[in-house]
Amino acid sequence: MNNRSIGSCVAIALVFSSNTAAYSSEQPSKTQTAIPPMQQQVGEVVSHLVGMMSTYAQARANPKAPDVTMRTCKIAVENTEALKNNSQAVFLYQEQAMSNNLAKPYRQRFLRIAPTADNQSIESQSFKPPTPEAWIGLCSQPEAKRVVKLNNIGSAKCSVFLKREGENYIGETPAEGCPSDYKGAVKVTNKIVLHKTGMDTLDRAFDAAGNQVWGSKGEPYQFRWINFDFSW
User: Fold this and answer.
1) Cβ neighbours of residue 1 under 8 Å, at least 6 residues apart?
2) Can you name the residues that pair with 221 across neighbouring β-strands?
3) Cα-flanking dihedrals φ and ψ of residue 107, to 5°?
4) Dist CA 80 CA 84 (whole Å)
5) Mean pLDDT along residues 116-140
6) 85, 108, 110, 111: which could form a disulfide with 132 (CB 3.0–4.6 Å)?
7) What is the rounded CA–CA span in Å between residue 17 and residue 88?
8) In angstroms, rounded to a whole number, what is the distance separating the alpha carbons of residues 194 and 135?
9) For the chain, what are the domain ranges?
10) What angle do CA 64, 212, 5 make, to 5 degrees?
11) What gap in Å lies between CA 219 and CA 216, rounded to an integer?
12) What is the pLDDT of residue 229?
């Protein structure tokens, strides 16, 4: 992956658009109805993620922006009984690859989407699989075959905490960021917006001196839904 590739913390993969006018029609209204139950919010976040999106339009408009394809699908995880607050959780698998090299994803994560313990937000918790090559193309399998054992999803790496605002979900990593050892970084931060046309994600990584070493240096990565599939 070259220096134009993104190193996303979450498969979520999610943020702030530098062009706020583009989202004016999607901002919450003061007359918005009551916030739905947490289980419904879990389902809404999942629906915002499952499928295929790319940064093709952004890369076409800006040659310096990477052209990345992201694919996300539901999976079943066995033996999750020991996990806390798991009754409402949904598990996903997510791949990111350069659009001209889809068979070799540079980022693979399992995601656990669930309400936080205080029921104040939705947590998208990412796990890095210990044997990522074993899961390449998992989303191409029938849903009945997308079954993963708990010990194969790997260790938790980062979480983004999302809150519903109007029809959007907006969130970010904890203030201190998440630990990283990728390309000289010691921590990563992410801000995300899930909206009806896709996802914007502002990923940034910093070294021990606080210098940004990779990630977005301007506008967020703008993933947009695509209505066709590739051969994975």
Assistant:
1) 7, 98, 106
2) 201
3) -145, 130
4) 9
5) 96
6) 108
7) 30
8) 25
9) 36-224
10) 35
11) 7
12) 45
For residues 11 and 107, the answer to whether their CB atoms sit within 8 Å is yes
Copy the structure tokens of residue 99.
């659009």
Token output for 1? 């992956």
Share above pLDDT 90 across residues of the chain, in percent, rounded to a whole number: 70
Cα torsion through 147, 50, 85, 129, rounded to 10? 50
Question: Is 2.40.128.590 the CATH number for 36-224?
Answer: yes
pLDDT at 59 over 90: yes
Q: What is the pTM of this model?
A: 0.82
Ramachandran sector of residue 22 (left: φ over 0; alpha: ψ -120 to 50; beta: rest): alpha
What is d(CA 109, CA 112) in angstroms, rounded to the nearest whole number? 10
Chain segment 141-191, per-residue pLDDT in tens: 999 999 999 999 998 989 999 999 999 999 999 989 999 888 899 999 999
